[in-house]
Design a protein that fits this description.
With about 280 residues, the chain is of the alpha+beta class. The chain has 2 domains: about 1-145, Fructose-1,6-Bisphosphatase, Chain A, domain 1 (2-Layer Sandwich), CATH 3.30.540; about 155-265, D-Maltodextrin-Binding Protein, domain 2. Helix content is about 35%, strand content about 25%. It contains 8 helices and 14 strands. Strand 8 (about 140-145) and strand 9 form a beta hairpin. Helix 1 packs antiparallel against helix 2 (about 45-65). The relative contact order is 0.13. It binds the ligand O=P(O)(O)O[C@H]1[C@H](O)[C@@H](O)[C@H](O)[C@@H](O)[C@@H]1O and magnesium ion (2 copies). The ligand O=P(O)(O)O[C@H]1[C@H](O)[C@@H](O)[C@H](O)[C@@H](O)[C@@H]1O binds near residues 72, 217 and 222. Pathway: Polyol metabolism; myo-inositol biosynthesis; myo-inositol from D-glucose 6-phosphate: step 2/2. Belongs to the inositol monophosphatase superfamily. It is found in: Cytoplasm.
Length: about 280
């Protein structure tokens, strides 16, 4: 299985690089950044998101015809979001579509691969920075081949925390997001940042630049690849109320260590969006 998995991962890296090239080229063509919307007027999608997801899935199907897929744009088009024990590719063709539309320079192709409902490897290609983040379970995390290690900071007051505002603008949700943000700023922490892509935020945790990232409202395709990259860089994952993380729950804390994670959890005003798999929270 070892060599088989490596072969699959090598394909994921190659196709992520190819997809990144398409995204870079599309940035120079306004038509390919024309905006359509999904769940809300600020949940954006472009033909490039759809084209890149199609490219990845077709390429994988040719080589691994029995594998299954959970892709952001396929789910938006009505496909089920179900994780089984079968080998499954979990794909976000453009993580940071809003950034892409505005040429804000953090845009990633994110690919996680799951077997037995466990993420086996993750590939995040931050394509405008040309940074290829990779991690295979038990084998470490890397950026362009260089090993990654989370920060060793234990004191949240000396930390940078990353988060995002998401695309839900219902008053109650916005209130909760700001309540968490206010609590965290008031700890006080050194700073709060957000790259505009969950996958890149998680890679920043893995790289040791920020101590923790949290968000409520993300989807499994935003965080599947990043989850194994964070863990393989020595970090921890948690639910926003401190329990074990569930990638379908749309709630995540990714941190350099348990001390920082638990401290952040205390300040998060948690809520429960509809799960990706439609099950009850
Ligand atoms: O929709 P994309 O750009 O794939 O993913 C983004 C989410 O939509 C947004 O809600 C979230 O805040 C952001 O972190 C994520 O990457
Ligand atoms: Mg995304
Ligand atoms: Mg996306």
């Amino acid at each position: 299985m070892d060599d088989v998995l490596q072969n699959i991962m090598d394909h994921a890296v190659a196709v992520a690089r190819e997809a990144g090239q398409v995204v870079r080229e599309a940035l120079c063509d306004e038509k390919q950044r024309d905006v359509m919307t999904k769940s809300s007027t600020v949940d954006l999608v472009t033909q490039t998101d759809q084209r890149v997801e199609h490219l990845i899935i077709q390429s994988v199907k040719k080589k691994f015809p029995t594998h299954r897929f959970i892709g952001e744009e396929s789910v938006a088009a009505g496909e089920a979001c179900v994780l089984t024990d079968d080998p499954t590719w979990i794909i976000d063709p453009i993580d940071g579509t809003t950034n892409f539309v505005h040429s804000f320079p953090f845009v990633a192709v994110s690919i996680g691969f799951s077997v037995d409902k466990k993420i086996q490897f993750g590939v995040v290609y931050s394509c405008l920075e040309d940074k290829m983040f990779t991690a295979r379970r038990g084998k470490g995390a890397f950026c362009n081949g260089e090993p990654l290690q989370v920060s060793d900071q234990e004191d949240v007051r000396r930390s940078i925390i990353a988060t995002e505002f998401g695309s839900n603008r219902e008053t109650e949700t916005v209130e909760k997001i700001f309540s968490s943000l206010r609590n965290i700023l008031n700890i006080p922490v050194h700073g709060v940042r957000g790259a505009g892509t969950a996958a890149v935020n998680m890679c920043l945790v893995a790289s040791g630049c920020v101590e923790a990232y949290y968000e409520v409202g993300v989807h499994v395709w935003d965080v599947a690849a990043g989850s194994v990259i964070v863990e393989e860089a020595g970090g921890v994952l948690m639910d926003v109320e401190g329990g074990p993380v569930d990638l379908m729950s749309r709630r995540i804390v990714a941190a350099n260590n348990g001390t920082v994670a638990h401290r952040i959890v205390k300040e998060i005003d948690a809520f429960s969006p509809t799960r990706d798999d439609g099950r009850d929270q």
